[in-house]
Amino acid sequence: MQKYLQEILKQALNKLDIEYDEIIVEIPQQKENGDYATNLALKLTKIVHDNPLNIANKIVQNINDEKIAKIEIKNPGFINFFVKKDYLFENINKVISLGEKYGSTNIGKNAKVNIEFVSANPTGILHLGNARGGAYGDSLARILKFCGYQVTKEYYVNDAGNQITNLALSIKSRYYALFDKNLAMPENGYFGEEIKDIAKKIKEKDNNIFIEHDIEYYKEQGINEFLTKIKKVLKDYRIDYDVFTSERAIYQKYPLENVINFLMEQSHAYKKDDAIWFKATDFYDNKDRVLVKSDGSYTYLVPDISYHMDKLNRGYDYLIDVLGTDHHGYVARLKSAIKAMNYDDTKLDVRLLQLVKLIKNGEEVKMSKRTGNAVSLQELIEEVGVDAARYFFSNRSLDTQLDFDLDLVKKKSNENPYYYVSYAYARICTILNDYHDKVTNIVKYNTIIEPEAINLLQKVYEFDNVVATAAIKRLPHLVTNYVYELASLFHYYYSKHKIIVTDEKKLHENLNILQAVKITIYNALNLIGVVPPEKM
After folding, report:
1. Among 27, 71, 144, 334, which residue's Cβ finds the most Cβ atoms within 10 Å?
2. Same domain, yes or no, for 132 and 255?
3. Both 98 and 67 in a single domain?
């Protein structure tokens, strides 16, 4: 309908010999301002050199359309449209016929998008920050696919560098201890129980005989063990990656010294104090950055350059990186480096996730009772379930701090937004399971006159626009907020009116409304990785 009204307005401008393409039609917050509104007359003031009220009147005089019930002009020049409700009734049949495809679009036009998210080091368990980043990345991937993009979900495995060496040395120390041999833990070693478990598994593989393994063996054992656990918990969290990319493999594909040589040749790097510096200030950064330290070791920026070169060389139109808020200063550095390597840095979009606080009994929970360490994603899933976790991590913008209230998440009351939405869906399912044979297309709807029903259908009608906006702006929480509003309107409609009535025509139309709402709720929740219950 918004596109339809945009076209009508464009035709009116053509009659007035006015050229203007940036026509915006929005849904007003107040119902008294119509179903749709535009500030077009205000925008045209400087172009046609007239006051907005005069412009608005001229535009309206050139509009005559059977789908519009009436048009009002409000100060200082807004044009408010009140449209006939036939389109809402037509949409009921559309929703029912499209089913799980309702709300999908092709705005992506098969553009290739790579979303890299979570990518935690294979040196420990996944925590709440990973849970939030995982929910965002996977939900965004679902939404983009729904809108016609080709999406690749990628996990970058940091299997090189000092943290992996320290992991290996930690496992080696624990392995030695199993044979009463003393080998000190590294300075930045890993002391978790899982390190001891890996050492025990190695001992079992060695038939309980001490074997002097090289450091690469311990690296492989540690990486494989942690990566297996990471993949399992992510799968439990309903995240299936398309690609796992090894940092070590990137080193082989794009030798780091080649990156340095190229930047030096292009005068984008220089030597200073026995180190090599990237001239990041020539691009977007506020200071130059070290690439190679004075001891000859590389900083994290160099392999990251190689990794992003690899992704861009794979032909993606857009790269989306989901990183922790501590990487805020890293964004300009990375985009500068990509541009310096002669790639299109505008293809990269870095999304930063803010901190998550776990709240219980009004107080922050920092440690796991089970391990004494940070609370893991696995523990959270066991505590509240995947659906509730995914919903709560998806209902706030990524750039805002999130308090994950365990008591609220587990509450079976309307205070809990996940419960509230789930209850709406289950309530609809209960009714439709008894009357499913009466849900079929209707040629002419003529009994739906209740304002609550109209409001509900208007919200259903907004779904494809909400999904498209969430895809374009890369904001999955818009879908979560939408489904909550839809559930609220359903609950209100249900409280005001009987669904099961003796009038067969009215019953049929009421059930079709429910079917349309059910499909829309299911599709919305599916986009954020939530499967609603049919019974509660």
Report:
1. 144
2. yes
3. no
Tokens of 50: 């007239």
Identify whether residues 30 and 118 lie together within a single domain.
no
Q: Could you tell me the strand order of the sheet in which 78-83 lies? A: 25-26, 36-38, 78-83, 68-74
- 38 forms bridges with which residues in the sheet? 25, 79
Residue numbers of the domain that contains 128: 112-156+240-353
Count of domains observed in the chain = 3
User: Tokens for 409?
Assistant: 């998440």
Same-domain status, 43 and 143: no
- Would you give the end-to-end CA distance of the chain in angstroms? 36
Residues 6+ apart with CB under 8 A from 469: 475, 478
SS in 3 state form for 122-139?
CCCCCEHHHHHHHHHHHH
CATH number assigned to the domain comprising residue 58: 3.30.1360.70
The H helix count followed by the E strand count for the chain is 20, 15
- Choose the final residue of a domain: 306, 334, 353: 353
- pLDDT category of residue 437 using cuts at 50, 70 and 90: confident
pLDDT at 366: 79
Secondary structure (DSSP) of 255-313:
-HHHHHHHHHHTTSEEEETTEEEE-GGGTT-SS-EEEE-TTSPBPTHHHHHHHHHHHHH
Which string of b and e fits 72-111 if b means at least 16 CB within 10 Å?
ebeeebbbbbebebebbbebbbebbeeeeebbbeebbeee
User: Which tens digits make up the pLDDT trace of 301-324?
Assistant: 999 999 999 999 999 999 999 999
Residue 404: inside a domain: no
- Domain annotation covers residue 471: yes
Mean pLDDT of 388-401: 96
Residue 533 domain-assigned?
A: no
Distances (CA, A) of 449 to 233, 283, 330, 454: 49, 60, 56, 7
DSSP three-state, residue 14: helix
65-124 pLDDT per residue, tens:
988 999 999 999 999 999 888 999 999 999 999 999 999 999 999 999 999 999 999 998
Asked if pLDDT for residue 406 goes beyond 90, the answer is yes
| Contact yes or no for 431/494 (Cβ under 8 A) | no
